[in-house]
């Protein structure tokens, strides 16, 4: 099993970062505008990604397994690209003065395939989008996300 | 041993991307302006990173172990942060129509420590800087690099 890990600091209270990760409305502000469903353990969140011209580029479903206010968010992927099924996304939050630190993980990939390298780069750009969204109110969720290579 | 991996596409000929990775002048255009030394197997490249006010934030030395024109660049770190010594950075290049794909690796970390998560995020921003540098002639090398958290 192999993991993608990233770390980012956001100049905002921890509760504001937690809200952006723990609610469908929050996730729609930085990952993909098409985020729907119930964000609670046992619930399902569905996300759809599109190219700027509206073509569907991918869709996935995850269960928010753990929602510990202002501490930790843990998602498990139920459907989507074959490589993602059964993988976990975790966000661990901590206070750092007047900023919030986020340690991100996309964990339990079966192999370090080239698609994982693409996703690692893409997650980094979405974490920059999360930072912008929380700090300024405006992120770059799909379909306005930064395109990084021929896979999107 | 654990690895950071990323993938990015650059709209430029492969020879231009290779030049940005295989020469000290090239590396100075996207990683840190203070890049000096001999870029050849057996040689040493020294890089120094500073904050915008000029304080030294870090320095490292690596040997360019492999320089395969338009295919692969491989660095081995000889000095720098303890976690980096003995680790390898690899860039594998391939043509994709009129673009160049780069598969990046920072390989052989002893443990997936939080500093590795910081470096993964930071490498992603430097790869965006490489893309900008090659595509437009202007990257964001240190000390003009994007600051991502409390570690820089």
Give a brief description:
Chain A is of the alpha+beta class and 152 residues long. In chain A, 24% of the residues lie in helices and 39% in strands. In chain A, strand 6 and strand 7 form a beta hairpin.
Layout of helices and strands:
The structure is a homodimer of 152-residue chains.
Chain A: E1 2-10, H1 14-22, H2 24-28, E2 34-37, E3 45-50, E4 56-68, E5 72-79, E6 88-96, E7 99-109, H3 114-136
Antiparallel strand pairs in A: 1-7, 2-3, 3-4, 4-5, 5-6, 6-7
Walk me through what this model shows.
- Two copies of one chain form a homodimer.
- The mean pLDDT of chain A is 97.
- The first copy, chain A, has helices spanning 14-22, 24-28, 114-136; strands at 2-10, 34-37, 45-50, 56-68, 72-79, 88-96, 99-109.
- By secondary structure, chain A is of the alpha+beta class.
- Chain A has a seven-stranded antiparallel β-sheet.
Q: Note the run of SSEs of chain A as H and E.
A: EHHEEEEEEH
Looking across the biggest beta sheet of chain A, what order are the strands in? 1-7-6-5-4-3-2
Average pLDDT of chain A: 97
Q: Using CB atoms under 8 Å apart, which protein chain pair has the greatest interface? A: A-B, 30 and 30 residues
Strand content of chain A: 35-45%
Structure class of chain A: alpha+beta
Tell me the number of helical segments of chain A per DSSP (H or I, 4 or more residues long).
3
- Give me the count of strands of chain A: 7
Provide the low-confidence segments of chain A as ranges: none
Give a short account of the largest sheet of chain A.
7 strands, antiparallel
The amount of helix of chain A comes to 10-25%
Oligomer state of the chains in this structure: homodimer
Rg of chain A, alpha carbons: 14 Å
Cα distance spanning the termini of chain A: 25 Å
Shape of chain A: globular
């Amino acid at each position: 099993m192999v993991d993608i890990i990233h770390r980012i600091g956001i100049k905002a209270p921890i509760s504001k970062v937690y809200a952006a990760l723990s609610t469908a409305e929050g996730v729609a502000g930085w990952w993909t505008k098409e985020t729907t469903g119930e964000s609670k353990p046992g619930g399902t969140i569905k996300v759809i990604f599109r190219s700027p011209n509206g073509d569907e580029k991918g869709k996935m479903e995850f269960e928010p397994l753990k929602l510990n206010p202002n501490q930790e968010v843990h998602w498990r992927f139920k459907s989507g690209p074959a490589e993602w099924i059964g993988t976990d996304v975790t966000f661990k939050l901590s206070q750092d003065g007047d900023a919030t630190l986020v340690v991100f993980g996309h964990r339990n990939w079966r192999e370090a395939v080239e698609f994982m390298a693409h996703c690692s780069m893409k997650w980094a750009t979405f974490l920059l989008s999360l930072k912008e969204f929380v700090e300024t109110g405006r992120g770059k969720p799909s379909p306005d996300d930064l395109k990084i290579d021929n896979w999107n």
